[in-house]
Amino acid sequence: MTNKERYRKLCATEQTIPLFSQDWWLDEVCGCKYWDVLLVLKGDNIVASMPVYIPHQGIISMPCYTQTMGPWFSKQFEPDNYSKKLNHRQVCCKEFTEKLEQYPHFLQNFHSDITDWLPFYWAGYKQTTRYSYLLKNIGDKDQLWKNLSSNICRNIINARDKEGISVRKGIPIEDFMRINAQSYERQKLSVKGDPRLLRKLIARCRERNQGDLWGGYDDKGRLHAAVFIVWHPGCAYYLAGGGDPEFRSSGAYSLVLWEAIHFVSDKTDTFDFEGSMLAGVEHYFRKFGTMQTPYFTITRGNISLLYKAWLKLAKVVTKQYDTRDDHNKV
Questions:
Q1: pLDDT for res 96
Q2: Span 225-235, pLDDT tens digits
Q3: Distances in Å between the alpha carbon of 208 and those of 158, 201, 228, 231?
Q4: With bands split at pLDDT 50, 70 and 90, how would you rate the model's confidence at 195?
Q5: Would you say residue 281 lies in a domain?
Q6: What total number of domains does the chain contain?
């Protein structure tokens, strides 16, 4: 049995593996042939795993629409004692770094649960701290409302009561794609990733009941704002979204996010805005009462080369979707 086959069996039953490290997610954002997984085994049992995206020979990078990856450790094999648990994880990560020696160029964002990157430091890797913004206990709607900034509260009330915005789940993909593209155009930025990949990812998440689109429409049927949210038992994530520049003052974007968060509270107790290093975006997410949460970007090798490889992702994925195997093939 290959590592990939072992890992697929694990993902079918292990809900503590984060969404972005699940095999079906990697099939979509990487393509079946362009990802692999490193394993630490104890007999036939997986003690730890670390999926990797390999867009080019010798290069490990991050796939599009994927915030974090990194090591995962089976709680079944972890000691209760903190010191022993730390040692156990470091031993596993040392095994990962040894297996990664064949890849001279490496860039990966580690899940925020990974707080110790020392084994990678000892192996010559570098680290940059980035931030995401999380809401905890999202099932407590009253407390969530209390934690909102006054500005966000006003936006929600204005959109709902004055602008007559109604929020709909399951809006057409093309409506969302148009709004998403308009947001990039307003900011004079290139659209993130390949639109065909985003469409396919939305469809796949809907098929699995692990993601959907929400939109805010006025009484004339005009779409003011829309978001794409994905979820897993461990967390829900704001993956993409945008608003029509003509209606930015309506407050619809805040209302749509608020309603989407309320919906996914039946799926999980945590919502991740995915953060941003951009000051304006960071400030907006913080207004929802979120908790700033650090995570690590771990790198090794020529960073400019890694970045160029990342920029080529859309072209790589486009070819994959024309010739790729079925989801269940390894």
A1: 98
A2: 999 999 999 99
A3: 34, 11, 15, 10
A4: confident
A5: no
A6: 2
Beta bridge partners of 291: 134
Higher-scoring residue by pLDDT: 315, 257: 257
DSSP collapsed to 3 states, the chain: CCHHHHHHHHHCCCCCCCHHHCHHHHHHHHCHHHEEEEEEEECCEEEEEEEEEEEECCEEECCCCCCCECCEECHHHCCCCHHHHHHHHHHHHHHHHHHHHHCCEEEEEECCCCCCCHHHHHCCCEEEEEEEEEEECCCCHHHHHHHCCHHHHHHHHHHHHHCCCEEEECCCHHHHHHHHHHHHHHCCCCCCCCHHHHHHHHHHHHHCCCEEEEEEECCCCCEEEEEEEEEECCEEEEEEEEECHHHHHHCHHHHHHHHHHHHHCCCCCEEECCCCCCHHHHHHHHCCCCEEEEEEEEEECCHHHHHHHHHCHHHHHHHHHHHCCCCCCC
Read off the pTM: 0.89
- The verdict on 126 and 145 lying in the same domain is no
Q: What is the CATH number of the domain that holds 199?
A: 3.40.630.30
Segments forming the whole domain that contains residue 172 = 138-268
Residue 312 pLDDT grade (very low, low, confident, very high; cuts 50, 70, 90): low
Instruction: Please give the pLDDT value at position 323.
Output: 36
Is 99 in the same domain as 194? no
37-44 CB contacts, 8 Å cutoff, 24+ apart: 37/3, 37/4, 37/7, 38/3, 38/96, 38/99, 38/100, 39/3, 39/6, 39/7, 40/92, 40/95, 40/96, 42/77
The pLDDT of residue 304 is above 90? no
Segment 244-273 mean pLDDT: 96
Residue 23 and residue 118 in one domain: yes
Q: Assess whether pLDDT exceeds 60 at residue 32.
A: yes
Same-domain pairing of 64 and 124? yes
Give the separation between CA 165 and CA 158, rounded to whole angstroms.
Answer: 9
Q: Which CATH number covers residue 96?
A: 3.40.630
Whether residue 161 sits in one domain with residue 248:
yes
